[in-house]
Automatic annotation (TrEMBL), chain A:
Residues 4-237 form the ABC transporter domain. This is Sulfonate ABC transporter ATP-binding protein. The keyword ATP-binding applies. Pfam families: ABC_tran. One of its GO terms (molecular function) is ATP hydrolysis activity. InterPro entries: AAA+_ATPase, ABC_transporter-like_ATP-bd, ABC_transporter_ATP-bind, P-loop_NTPase. Belongs to the ABC transporter superfamily. The keyword Transcription does not apply. Keywords: ATP-binding, Nucleotide-binding, Transport. It comes from Candidatus Raskinella chloraquaticus. It comes from the Bacteria.
TrEMBL record, chain B:
The chain crosses the membrane at residues 66-92, 104-124, 130-149, 194-215, 221-244. Residues 64-244 form the ABC transmembrane type-1 domain. PROSITE patterns: ABC_TM1. SUPFAM superfamilies: MetI-like. One of its GO terms (cellular component) is plasma membrane. InterPro entries: MetI-like (IPR000515), MetI-like_sf (IPR035906). Probably part of an ABC transporter complex. Probably responsible for the translocation of the substrate across the membrane. Belongs to the binding-protein-dependent transport system permease family. Pfam families: BPD_transp_1. This is ABC transporter permease. The keyword Membrane applies.
Amino acid sequence: MSKLSVENVSRQFPAPRGGAPVPALLPVDLTVADNDFLVLLGPSGCGKSTLLRLIAGLDRPTTGRILLDGRPVSAPGPDRGMVFQSYTLFPWLTVADNIAFGLREKGLDEASVKPIISDWLERIGLAGFGNHYPKQLSGGMQQRTAIARALATDPAILLLDEPFGALDNQTRGLMQEMLLSIWEKQKKTVIFVTHDIEEAVFLASRVIVMTARPGRIKAEIAIDLAHPRHYTVKTSSEFSALKARLTEEIRSEALLAAHV
Amino acid sequence: MKPLEPISFGARLALGLLFFVVFVAAWSLATFGGFVSKTFLADPLTMIDEGRILIVRYGFLGDIAITIWRVVGGFVLAAAVAVPLGVLMGAYKPVEALLEPFISFARYLPASAFIPLLILWAGTGELQKLLVIFIGSFFQLVLIIAVTVGGTRRDLVEAALTLGAKDSRILTRVLLPAAGPQIAETLRLVLGWAWTYVIVAELIGSSAGIGHMIIDSQALLATGQIIFGIIVIGIIGLVSDFLFKALNRRLFAWSTL
């Protein structure tokens, strides 16, 4: 049985000043299996973030429905962890308290929260930073904490909306490796939104290419590079071939998008 | 000078003091130099001497205490109602829709114009003074706090929702802590305004307080005393502002990192 199924889901935004409604996402069907690492790839404005927000429950679809483990999604919840593109750590909480946010909302007692915090600090390489405030961290460290915060409550599925988009190239590479190693160890179900082709190929087990506005699914490409993936895979011929193929798929869409 | 270029702490202090010196020098020149009649403007030395007499002979410290009590009392009352109400308006749009238009209207009603009415309703006692401060600061506080809370970053609220925070918990777990430093800054700002209202309240129908002393001195043409009173208000304002700032920095250390 599939973990997540998106059935005939579309989203229209109400028209500004009585014009025709703006379609952001045309009806989409999508199933995501347990332990899948799905990447939604497309040019900006293709509705990939809209689709992710619908899955998160932060927005409601105009048509269709979304099922997670057979239950319809109607509102945001801790079973779908989310990492945003903007830095959304709570600036008034320390790194440790940020990681513990979801656990405390769940009502866990402090004795069980403590070990989870130190465990995650270790895993994201921020042991010793537990008492720092977000403003004292670099962008990469903040996004690592945001990933830990989203995973601390052990959600059924992790949603990431261009989480490394604002980071420099080197940091971004390291973050991809960290995320991948967490996924390889924990076998989470992940949906990752990006417009970066290399990032998509490196991370995904499956890439969904989306079309320019209004968004719909254009192609689905399996990435069967072996795990654990090492960063050196990025220079392999297999990797280049996949990248070239996705580049072709995306290019036509980007051209369309640029004319809009 | 380069635009936006920071300066050292020492230079900042020296420049800040320099202008006080320039101010007193210009005042001394005008009075000691005989450019302005003593009847209209006392010189700095006369002012200090009259201030000394006020304190020693006429119990001016008591007036100061009463005025401070009125400002703090009226302001605390206003804040105690305005902060919760402003937070609710910022957080819940129906509450805002209900109250915002009226409060925007009430904000423009000048507190000083209520004084005759308030004397009619509450007499010339302490309650009337507190009510003037209350009216003067309450509506401003509510509106600014509502805007502050309403302007909380949406993505922080969304992050909390995806972490399992219930709608009812968003207020205490996200909106309040996020708006905390701005609310504290608003309180500091409006406290400064409360000082102008208290003096106006004391100018009319009052038997004690700094404003009352100023009106008495006017009858005696004691400009030295008037200026002394005004300067005392300025100093109290400066000190309370400084303390408030220090408190905010301690309470919300995360926001000034």
